[in-house]
Amino acid sequence: MPQKTLGFASHDHNACIRSALNAADAACAARAVQLTPVRRRVLEILLESHAAMGAYDVLARLDAEGLGSKPPVAYRALTFLIEQGFVHRIERLNAFIACTHPGAAHDPAFMICRSCGVVAEALAEAALGKTAKQSGFMIEQTVIEAEGLCPRCQPEVTA
Questions:
Q1: CATH number for the domain including 60?
Q2: Which residues have CB under 8 Å from 73's CB, separation 6+?
Q3: What is the pLDDT of residues 12-28, one digit of tens each?
């Protein structure tokens, strides 16, 4: 079911959002944790596009909607969402993006378009895991971030 390049592929984005919110609701109920209105709204904001957003951009949206104006409001919600596996932090951009595989244990790999800012999440390659296992190294977490041009931003190649 996971689509490897959802951020770049044409898809029903409303269904994408509904699916992610339903997964978050179900996971929170199963884990007996609260998806408060602020946490839910932060997730909705991040789900609106497949572009990463900085914490202060999220905070500005919350403030405009009367949900909080102090940085801890956004950071607490983002921390919760990361801990629950609904959001990832993109180190390269110092920003956050909704997970396209919520509820699934996975190591993300991000393809970041340097032109339009769209970020696609893929599953990290197993090659590193195989190499680590062969060398006796135990990987606890992997995050891969690649920068380049998405299909829409690449110049057309003429033959």
A1: 1.10.10.10
A2: 38, 59, 62, 67
A3: 778 878 988 999 999 99
